[in-house]
Amino acid sequence: MALWGGRFGEGMSDVTKWFTDDTSDRRLLVVDIQGSIAHVEMLGQAGIISGEEMEALVDGLRRILEEADRFEFQDTDEDVHTAVERRLGELVGELAGKLHTGRSRNDQIALDLRLYLRQATDELISQIRQLVEVLIESAAAHRDVVVPTYTHLQQAQVTTLGHHLLAYAWMLTRDAERLVANREQIDRSPLGAGASAGSTLPLDRVDVAERLAMDGLVVNSLDAVGSRDFAAAHVFNCAQGMAHLSRLAEEVILWASREFRWVTLSDQVSTGSSALPQKRNPDIAELVRGRAASVIGDTAAVLSLQKGLPLAYNRDLQEDKRLVFHADDTLAASLEAMAEMVGQLEFHVPEPGAETTALDLAEALVSRGVPFRDAHEVVGRLVLHLEAADRDFGSATSDDLTAVDTRFEGSDVDLLDPSQSAARRATVGAGSPTSVDDQIESLRQIWEGKPLN
Ligand code: ARG
Asked: Is 0.85 surpassed by the pTM of this model?
């Protein structure tokens, strides 16, 4: 069934039909019906249809809602809106023709996408919360485990493994906060904008928004039907989330390598090789990293989709849905898989090289009044002195230190033990075991407070 046709002598050709039909919107079925119920109730309230008509239409729509999980789409349904109106006709007869009063598919689809994304946002936030919880638990369990930090993939200073894991908990928490912020933009009703510039009927836009528990209107009708910035922001938010997960995935892949030997993946989250009997592969992590690429692509596509469109609605906008769904589904699936994998990482991190304490040694001099630039130079000379004798940094003795510079004290040699270095770190958020405790406390407060909770 088409929702139009009066002005046409002939029907669409088969090619035109299959090319323009949309099946990607079928997952909007439930929100489409919810939007229609609110719309019909508003029509009744405003006296545009009678109370009896309203009741019969709402009743029919509720029945469709009940059968939503077994709803049968037909080949002749142009899109989800057409399918619902066709089914409503089967249930309530000609009265179904009043459903579309004061409405266009242009404001209807904008509404559906907003209702869908409002819910999808809440689901993503709760999935992010679960992964953050897994990271926090692992961080607490590894609050004292000393690991090297890396800059340029060279060992830099030391910190604790708990601190390293919490870096991802913070990133993901911001991802959730970004979703919350966009939820405010999503949660506005475009309904009543009609095809482009509203209606001569006394539609009550505020009433319908309130019925859908939306937080206000997209006021300008052209903006309401023609804008997809809220959808683009959602896709970006998914892409940023994927980029964070991909980064963690990349580290897991490195950590699981023979070269790093930081973790063993449990059997449950590993895959084997069909050719190499010894292999234990981190495929979840690799797929997350790989799928991040396509969600980043969705972001470029959803922006490109908007950039050349004259106001207001253009059919191009139909293409937003597959991008939004793909981005949203990919992040949701990746969050679930990563929570499973990260929860099962068995860490056994090798001790960092003693050179990760070089800055500690320089700062000991700084604390005695030596300008940092001099202290840097002195420790650099110590490195050179040891390297000339083919010795590593950890082999330095008090005599080596005082030979290089008399401002060293004999006991400074104790600073060369990387296992003690993280606990001495005084800066807020620097990863000492107590900083890990503090960060866990802060993260828990953020997640328990508004607006994340
Ligand atoms: N399937 C369309 C979309 O997703 C619905 C709106 C169609 N409007 C129209 N005038 N053809 O954007």
From this structure: yes
